[in-house]
Amino acid sequence: MGERAVVLLSGGLDSATVAAIALAQGRTLTALSFDYGQRHRYELEAAREVASALGILDHRVVQLGLSSIGGSALTADLPVPKDALGQAGIPVTYVPARNTVFLSVGLGLCEVVGAFELYFGANALDYSGYPDCRPAFVQAFEALANVATKAAAEGRGHFRIHAPLMEMSKAQIIQRGTELGLDYGLTHSCYDPPSRTLHCGHCDACQLRRRGFLEAGIADPTHYAS
User: Fold this and answer.
1) CB-side exposure of 113: number of CA atoms within 13 Å?
2) Would you say 11 and 114 are in contact if contact means Cβ atoms under 8 Å apart?
3) Total domain count for the chain?
4) In the chain, helix, strand, coil percent, each to 5?
5) 221 part of a folded domain
6) Does residue 223 lie in a domain region?
């Protein structure tokens, strides 16, 4: 068995690729998903299927009531922007402090399972502009992890936050996952999905996904409503 690590697994294209990369690096993974009141809860079914396909035996789903806070089109009764990719400003699909919350729970799980490696799918090249997907955020959280935990305070190890997709285009991500044998047909990206097997085709996540497969020159297994 390899070094133990925790991976945040949403069920989307990026997080599935990160899990495949971590496994290729010899890690023994615990996958962590969140049911946080998101409108696209189909991604949790995708996460379970991806974990099973990758042979990840320890997959945990944590309940978080972020819909009680709202403030995002993904957790409140606000329309998901369509055909708006590239518009200025941080889109309304940004969930306040989501990655900070997710990584904090992931860090706690690392302490419990004895892991010092935490992987997630942040990307600062082909993304919607979320502030918690940038290198500065990852570096700051890693510094926090090493002053905020019992394991670090007792000198049992140094926590590392891995974001291997940070500087990759969506096409490069898809190419890497394909090289690793990842079945992207299992993944789910849409923010406003008509069903588990259907993507809307017009939200930011769908547009980035579509463009990525096109630029990668790889057949897109996704079914879009239009």
Assistant:
1) 23
2) no
3) 1
4) 40, 15, 50
5) no
6) no
Which residue range is the domain that position 189 belongs to? 4-216
CB 49 within 8 A of CB 20: no
At 179, which amino acid appears?
E
Burial 113-151 (b: 16+ CB within 10 A, else e): eebbbbbbbbbbebbbbbebbbeebbeebbebbbeebeb
Residues 6+ apart with CB under 8 A from 72: 66, 78, 92, 93, 94, 95, 96
Instruction: Return d(Cα 27, Cα 5) in angstroms, integer.
Output: 6
pLDDT over 60 (residue 53) = yes
Max Cα distance, the chain (Å): 55
> Under DSSP, is residue 46 helix (H, G, I), strand (E, B) or coil?
helix
Distance in angstroms (rounded) separating the CA atoms of residues 225 and 36:
25
CATH number of domain containing 196: 3.40.50.620
**The pLDDT of residue 1:** 57
The two beta strands, 28-35 and 160-162, are unpaired
Is residue 191 a part of any domain in this protein? yes
Cα distances from 126 to residues 119, 135, 185, 186, 203, in angstroms, run 18, 14, 20, 21, 14
Over residues 151-179, the mean pLDDT reads 96
